């Protein structure tokens, strides 16, 4: 034994005894730079991952990421439709109530577990309840299904964006076809409208049914490839790359919405649309269907159950005030929906006035043709001049007189009512709102190409923000669980999704998008969130969870959350799941097909194989939950497998390496080596090291990254209770 071995060992014993004493007494004897260092006890690989886990550059970047994820296309084309359909301004009341009762508590719950455990959805639910570990896998499957068709919508937006740099816009009017003698309007366009024709025929080149694939639409295939390339490049470095993109993708849509609102308010008829929106229909608010649809919208607006919320929050510091984040992001989401609804109704009000003026002009010509035959000159008010433009008010006055005089024969005259209210009551949602109604309104804007470019660029950014969270909900859990390189996994997922996504860029692709939208997420996500709530509130324990939150946040959350998590929210979610199942049972699966000959939509039932696909989507999404449960219940997989064993202290000391011992010294045990051997310690599971909360770690003597000593099991050193 070398002569200095006893001195080295004595110094080591003193250092270890002092540092453990400091930790257990919770005394702050360290420098300020180490006040947030943590003691991590567990397996080597988990500890290394936690030390190397990336973090947000700033709180603003994190908030923008959560806002970008939760605020998506649904805020622009789903919320306004529900508001219009369910009582106008009165719909905001049940939505706000359910946001407070269901949305914020569940959003807070997901933020908390992600931040506390610092893992993706798979690791989080393995930790809380190993038998319910399938929840995380189910979230990943649902995220993948949603990403498949959601990026197709971004591809559609990219196509329209690329076509907007033209004056006039290509969907401004119906195309003309020339034969040998004459030119005529394309019949399909003449029977519908220019924007409808452009969407179904020029953009999608849609087939008549889901059974007719029709081959690939090469233009949409290129747009889909561009969309997946953008997602891959933004996500390849994880939050380090996507976080920087968030500054633009999250803020730009607000700039566009505000610019649209200011511009549209200067146009005729916009106030009619906003008045229509805020005119409450209180009797509708009492219907159960309104509350069910409001609950569903709250649920999907915040991105609950996908795993993206958990993934983003897992990169936070453990003492971050996630309660404030939950409330802030939820209300930003709500006010964004209201802002988007204002813009949509203002644009639809402007469009309704344009369409009403065309209707009045067309029917005025009919009245002029009928004068002297079926309509007497005496029935026309004297102040109306047919040589000038007839106003909507004058037309209404004429039709009321004619209806009163010729009660039985009025219908035979073939005159339309031409009402702005009727135009505004035509409920439009989804792609019909974005790619038909909105595009038609923008053709009447001054400098329409500019507004078209801005609108579709906004849609791309809204979609990208949601896609980043969705892909993070797939990548983060898989990286945490299977320890693969994030770059390789990101590229692999994007390539796989692109090739499967070719299904959605066939001529029948729009029908597949509708199928996945209806069946791949709704029921599975409801089941996932119910199980998440039950796992935390009833299996892990609400009291225990509250203690964890107090330790993490530094204060006890409001008692309101205790009762929400334990009783109210699970009950409401079960009722929502039951009503959704009943609704699906009462309405057989069908889709809206575009028939070229009729130039109109028609509801068709899915073929038998289509029904099988619908059922398979639901089953595949939820299957991981029972599979993992039974595998662990019957001990086929050890219940402790994958559980993160991490103990964190807010305060701690760093043991500095002062002596570099020789390889044949007894102190070589410190470096996890046996004297005269290069083999690692036989007990890596008991390794203890300290991690500094900032800065670049030094290379530990055994080649791993850490700060301080990696201590093996020493015969003359008592084993720590930690």
Automatic annotation (TrEMBL):
Gene Ontology CC terms: plasma membrane
Membrane-traversing stretches: 62-80, 92-113, 134-161, 216-236, 245-266, 294-315, 327-348, 450-476, 488-507, 519-540, 560-586, 606-631
Localization in the cell: Membrane
Region of interest called Disordered, as start-end residue ranges on this chain: 665-700
One biological process term in Gene Ontology: L-leucine transport
Binding-site residues, Na(+): 68, 71, 75, 333, 462, 466
Coiled coil: none
Position of the signal peptide: none
GO terms of molecular function: metal ion binding; proline:sodium symporter activity
InterPro entries from the UniProt entry: Na/ntran_symport, Neutral_aa_SLC6, SNS_sf
Keywords of the record: Glycoprotein, Membrane, Metal-binding, Sodium, Symport, Transmembrane, Transmembrane helix, Transport
Primary localisation category: membrane
Family: Belongs to the sodium:neurotransmitter symporter (SNF) (TC 2.A.22) family.
PANTHER family: SODIUM-DEPENDENT NEUTRAL AMINO ACID TRANSPORTER B(0)AT2 (PTHR11616:SF101), SODIUM/CHLORIDE DEPENDENT TRANSPORTER (PTHR11616)
Protein name, UniProt field: Transporter
Organism: Oncorhynchus tshawytscha (Chinook salmon)
């Amino acid at each position: 034994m070398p002569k200095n071995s006893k001195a080295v060992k004595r110094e080591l014993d003193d250092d270890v005894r002092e540092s453990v004493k400091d930790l257990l007494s919770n005394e702050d004897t360290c420098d300020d730079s180490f006040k947030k260092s943590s003691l991590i006890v567990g397996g080597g690989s988990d500890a290394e991952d936690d030390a190397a886990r990336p973090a947000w550059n700033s709180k603003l970047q994190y908030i923008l990421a959560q806002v970008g994820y939760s605020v998506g296309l649904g805020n622009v084309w789903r919320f306004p439709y529900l508001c219009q359909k369910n009582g106008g301004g009165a719909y905001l009341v049940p939505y706000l109530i359910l946001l407070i009762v269901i949305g914020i508590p569940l959003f807070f719950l997901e933020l908390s577990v992600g931040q506390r455990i610092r893992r993706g959805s798979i690791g989080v639910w393995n930790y809380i309840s190993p038998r319910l570990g399938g929840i995380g896998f189910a979230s990943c499957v649902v995220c993948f299904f949603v990403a498949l068709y959601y990026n197709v919508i971004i591809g559609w937006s990219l196509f329209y964006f690329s076509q907007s740099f033209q004056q006039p816009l290509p969907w401004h009017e119906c195309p003309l076809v020339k034969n040998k003698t004459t030119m005529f309007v394309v019949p399909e366009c003449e029977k519908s409208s220019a924007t409808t024709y452009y969407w179904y025929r020029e953009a999608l080149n849609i087939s008549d049914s889901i059974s007719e694939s029709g081959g690939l639409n090469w233009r949409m295939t290129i747009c889909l490839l561009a969309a997946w390339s953008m997602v891959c490049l933004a996500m390849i470095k994880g939050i380090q790359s996507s976080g920087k993109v968030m500054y633009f993708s999250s803020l730009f849509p607000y700039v566009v919405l505000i610019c649209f609102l200011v511009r549209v308010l200067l146009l005729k008829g916009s106030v009619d649309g906003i008045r229509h929106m805020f005119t409450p229909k209180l009797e509708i608010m009492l219907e159960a269907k309104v509350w069910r649809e409001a609950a569903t919208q709250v649920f999907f607006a915040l991105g609950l159950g996908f795993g993206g919320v958990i993934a983003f929050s897992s990169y936070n510091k453990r003492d971050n005030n996630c309660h404030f984040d939950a409330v802030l992001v939820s209300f930003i989401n709500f006010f964004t929906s209201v802002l988007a609804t204002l813009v949509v109704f203002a644009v639809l009000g402007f469009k309704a006035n344009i369409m009403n003026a065309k209707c009045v002009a067309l029917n005025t010509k009919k009245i002029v043709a009928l004068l002297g035959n079926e309509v007497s000159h005496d029935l026309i008010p004297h102040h109306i001049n047919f040589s000038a433009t007839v106003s909507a008010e004058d037309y209404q006055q004429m039709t009321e007189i004619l209806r009163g005089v010729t009660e039985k024969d009025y219908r035979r005259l073939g005159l339309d009512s031409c009402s702005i209210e009727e135009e505004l009551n035509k409920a439009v949602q989804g792609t019909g709102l974005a790619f038909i109604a909105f595009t038609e309104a923008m053709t009447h804007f001054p400098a329409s190409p500019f507004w078209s470019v801005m609108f579709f660029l906004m849609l791309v950014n809204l979609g990208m923000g949601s896609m980043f969270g969705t892909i993070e909900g797939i990548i983060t859990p898989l990286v945490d669980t299977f320890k693969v390189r994030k770059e390789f996994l990101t590229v692999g997922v994007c390539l796989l999704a692109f090739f499967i996504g070719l299904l959605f860029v066939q001529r029948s692709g729009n029908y597949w998008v509708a199928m996945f939208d209806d069946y791949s997420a709704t029921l599975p996500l409801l089941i996932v969130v119910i199980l998440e709530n039950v796992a935390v509130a009833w299996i892990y324990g609400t009291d225990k969870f509250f203690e964890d939150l107090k330790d993490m946040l530094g204060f006890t959350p409001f008692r309101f959350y205790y009762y929400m998590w334990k009783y109210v929210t699970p009950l409401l979610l079960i009722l929502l799941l039951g009503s959704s199942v009943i609704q699906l049972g009462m309405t057989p699966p069908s889709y809206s097909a575009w028939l070229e000959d009729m130039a109109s939509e028609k509801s068709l039932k899915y073929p038998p194989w289509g029904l099988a696909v619908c059922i398979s989507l639901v089953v595949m999404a939820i299957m991981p939950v029972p599979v993992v449960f039974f595998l662990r219940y019957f001990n086929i997989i050890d219940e402790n497998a994958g559980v993160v064993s991490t103990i964190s202290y807010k305060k701690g000391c760093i043991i500095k390496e002062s002596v570099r011992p020789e390889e044949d010294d007894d102190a070589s045990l410190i470096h996890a080596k046996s004297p005269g051997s290069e083999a690692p310690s036989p007990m890596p599971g008991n390794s203890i090291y300290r991690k500094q909360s900032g800065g670049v770690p030094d290379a530990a003597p055994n080649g791993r990254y850490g700060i301080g000593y990696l201590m093996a099991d020493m015969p003359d050193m008592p084993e720590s209770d930690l």
